[in-house]
Amino acid sequence: MYQTPLQAYQTVEQKTISGRETEARVLTKAAMLLKNCQENWDSPNRRQQLDEALRYNQRIWSIIQGDLLDEANPLPKQIRENILSLSAFIDKRIFNVMAFPKSDKISIIIDINLNLAAGLRSSSD
Questions:
Q1: Is 102 helix (H, G, I), strand (E, B) or coil?
Q2: Fewer CB within 10 Å, N side or C side of the chain?
Q3: 61 and 87 in contact (C-beta within 8 Å)?
Q4: How far apart are CA 53 and CA 40, in angstroms?
Q5: What's the sign of the alpha-carbon dihedral 100, 103, 108, 114?
Q6: Is the pLDDT of residue 16 over 50?
């Protein structure tokens, strides 16, 4: 029996959705959190929403980095290295936006997340 409804949902989701689709969904959610901040930049609670969106993105990319560094990762070495370079760029941009917030700085993170998500979806078809 599951301890929480969330655990039950996650178990069902894991059995019904591919790993790539899950990764695509998470990256899309990360992009949408940032896009919402960008579209509501003058909101009184922007700072809190931006911090949450950036931290969510940071966690996602940290997980991606850990997965790419795993020797058991099935991706070719060159692709892993390219995505790791991309993740280093994302890390720098996140820290830059945290220190010096500007709405236009998050566009590149949004675009990268959405493009990577689209690639994951197309490769799982």
A1: coil
A2: N
A3: yes
A4: 13
A5: positive
A6: no
Cα separation of 124 and 108, whole Å?
24
Query: Tokens representing 111?
Result: 């675009």
**Residue with token string 């560094």:** 69
DSSP assignment string, 18-40: -HHHHHHHHHHHHHHHHHHHHHT
* Gap between the Cα atoms of 104 and 61, Å rounded: 20
Q: Are 84 and 106 in contact (CB under 8 A)?
A: no
**Gap between the Cα atoms of 57 and 80, Å rounded:** 19
In angstroms, rounded to a whole number, what is the distance separating the alpha carbons of residues 73 and 50? 32
**The pLDDT value given to residue 120:** 87
- Dihedral of alpha carbons 94, 53, 70, 16, sign: negative
| Structure confidence by residue, pLDDT tens digits, 71-109 | 898 989 999 999 999 999 999 999 999 999 999 999 999
Instruction: List, in order of start, the domains of the chain with CATH numbers.
Output: 17-123 (1.20.120)
Taking the C-alpha atoms of residue 103 and residue 38, their distance in angstroms, rounded to an integer, is: 5
